[in-house]
Amino acid sequence: MKRKIIGFNRDDESHWRAELECGHCQHVRHDPPLTTRAWVLTEEGRAARLGLELDCKRCDEEKDDNAQP
Predict the structure, then answer these.
(1) Whole-angstrom Cα distance, residue 47 to residue 40?
(2) Which residue ranges make up each domain of the chain?
(3) Contact 18/28 with Cβ under 8 angstroms?
(4) CB proximity list for 16: less than 8 A, separation 6 or greater
(5) Cα–Cα distance between 18 and 2 in angstroms, integer?
(6) Which residues have CB under 8 Å from 28's CB, separation 6+?
(7) Tens of pLDDT, residues 6-31
(8) pTM (2 decimals)?
């Protein structure tokens, strides 16, 4: 389910997480060569991504759990 990024924070290991409008967080690591997100390393890069929509897997899972009888 698409959710907008409303902020960023770091987890216990200092990895960046996007705070989503639903209240969930999603990691947005820069971990080349697997994942290249150099924008997460700067305040300007993160600010430019505010409002961007990400798929929230936790919302999808909750929706699926609630749909089952």
Answers:
(1) 9
(2) 2-59
(3) yes
(4) 8, 9, 10, 27, 28, 29, 30, 40, 46
(5) 13
(6) 8, 16, 17, 18, 37, 40
(7) 999 999 999 999 999 999 999 998 88
(8) 0.84
